[in-house]
Amino acid sequence: MDNGNLGVSHLAWCGLVALHTARRDGLTSSAAQDNLFLVRWLAVAEKQRRFSRGVAGDISWLLKEGRGKGLQADLPGKLDYLWRAGSGNLGAQNDLYRLQHALQAVKLTGWIYMVLAGREWCGRHQLRLSPTVSGVYLCRSALDKGFDEHGRQTAPLSARLTGELPALDAILKRSGWRRVPVPGNDALLHHLLAEDFPAECG
User: Fold this and answer.
1) CA 175 to CA 166: how far, in whole Å?
2) Taking the CB of residue 119, how many other CB atoms lie within 10 A of it?
3) Domain boundary residue among 88, 105, 133?
4) Which top-level group of life is the source organism from (predicted)?
5) Which of 1, 29, 34 is CA-nearest to residue 15?
6) Number of domains into which the chain is organized
7) What is the pLDDT of residues 10-52, one digit of tens each?
């Protein structure tokens, strides 16, 4: 694990412990109070420079999310993601769990995430996607058939991807996944592959 991930993981862990303590002490009892507590905690941490300079950007981002989106920011969920992604625990999980974790992170960053039925995926009723709006769209049948009973990937996972793909790549990489463009007429079509899934099968 690199020092950057370690710093972010430490920040997230401290925030989650502080929130747990506040809940136990009766200082928060609702999602709105959790969000307000974490915004205040992050603001104090930023002002007092409690953490290394390397995570200053993460603190600023979390504060902006919490202040701007309120409950929708889901600060506890973001901290949990940052902790799991940086602590090394995520890599021990199966492919499906790590993909679900990445997709949760995608939603937390404001991307659209949808699982499409067959008629929405192709044909006359295919969902029209905007290449400029960041989104991840999965084919339900591919998702259903793509994993064994142990959560290991068994087939490439078809996805249409739009928007800022480098940002998506960073999220996927943290969770041990990657994307591979599918040659052909559909520029948005990709295969999502777990890190140990052979690229030639994609």
Assistant:
1) 15
2) 11
3) 88
4) Bacteria
5) 34
6) 2
7) 899 999 999 999 999 999 999 999 999 999 999 999 999 888 8
- pLDDT tens string 170-201: 889 888 899 999 998 888 999 999 988 886 55
What residue spans of the chain are helical by DSSP H? 3-24, 31-48, 56-69, 75-87, 95-108, 118-121, 140-145, 165-174
Check whether residue 80 and residue 152 sit in a common domain: no
Parent domain of 44: 3-88
Full-model pTM? 0.62
Residues in the chain: 202
Tell which of 62, 88, 114 closes a domain. Answer: 88
The structure tokens listed for 99 are: 């993909």
| Structure tokens belonging to residue 130 | 């905007």
Nearest in space to 103 (alpha carbons), one of 141, 159, 146, 58 = 159
Contact between 111 and 134 (Cβ < 8 Å): yes
Query: Does one domain contain both 171 and 196?
Result: yes
